[in-house]
Amino acid sequence: MRRSFVALFLIPLVAIATSVPWKAGRSVESWSARSYIQKLPKAVEQDGSRLPLVVLLHGFTGSAEAIEAYSGLGSLAESEGFILVVPQGLGRPAGWNCGFINLGKAGVDDLSFLSKLLDRVTTELPVDPARVFVAGHSNGAMMANALGGLRPDKIAAIAAVAGVIGVGKSNPKMMPNPKGPISVLHIHGTADQVVAYSPGAVAVLTGVGAKDAVKWWAEKDGITASPTETQEKGFESILYQSHTATVQLLSLIGWGHDWPTSQQSPINGARTIWNFFKAHPKRLSSNDPK
Predict the structure, then answer these.
(1) Which candidate, 2, 5, 187, 282, has a CA 20 to 30 Å from the CA of 52?
(2) What is the pLDDT of residues 3-17, one digit of tens each?
(3) Total domain count for the chain?
(4) Has residue 4 been placed in a domain?
(5) How far apart are the C-alpha atoms of 182 and 44, rounded to whole Å?
(6) Mind listing the pLDDT tens digit for each residue in 25-60?
(7) Is 88 in contact with 105 (CB distance < 8 Å)?
């Protein structure tokens, strides 16, 4: 009688001990009077798993729902097993206040919001602290640069599609110097007429050119070696590397402002960005291999 009672008592305890608190799926979360899409892959239900996190930022006039779909990262999150968080900017139209360029709601500190959101999701979700990444398009790419520079303690790498690090034809207003080394991927179409690829190009927004941007990042990351330049079908690569960080520019020949897709461009933007992220986790200590 006593044995049966103990056995019955232990059954729910075992179930509780082996249960996983997270469930896979997509949800729209509200926090701090803001909203963001959260996608948890099936891998989140594996007991003890710690997964990569990708924060994805839409462009000016865009939305979280739109970039989740057209970037390809929404579908890739499940197949590759990473957590995807897609915040919604404020304003009409919506955008982000990056500091060096403000296209969001007046008076809103978007950098502070995103920094705190990053802390929130990495604390509440089963995130691998060595694999936290940020990607963005256009104004979202500008914010990815700014957020990466602000939080290299948290972020391992960023990817910026059709974005800049400074705006203005002469003496451009720049983002602040990064607070530490971080790996950076820039993807930019050479025929972009919205955000100029080079300072002398005709576009809605001009500023620091793509090549100057990755050179700036490499210098701030402490990379002293000369870059490796290669040409592929439809695009060119400039690659800076050191034992602490990697900085790369992919120049898409004749491409405009759109996010690159596998059907229309020489690269698949989502796959290229994810491959870069996978290859560049954060070194959590000086003894960790790069």
Answers:
(1) 187
(2) 444 444 444 444 333
(3) 1
(4) no
(5) 26
(6) 999 999 999 999 999 999 999 888 899 999 999 999
(7) no
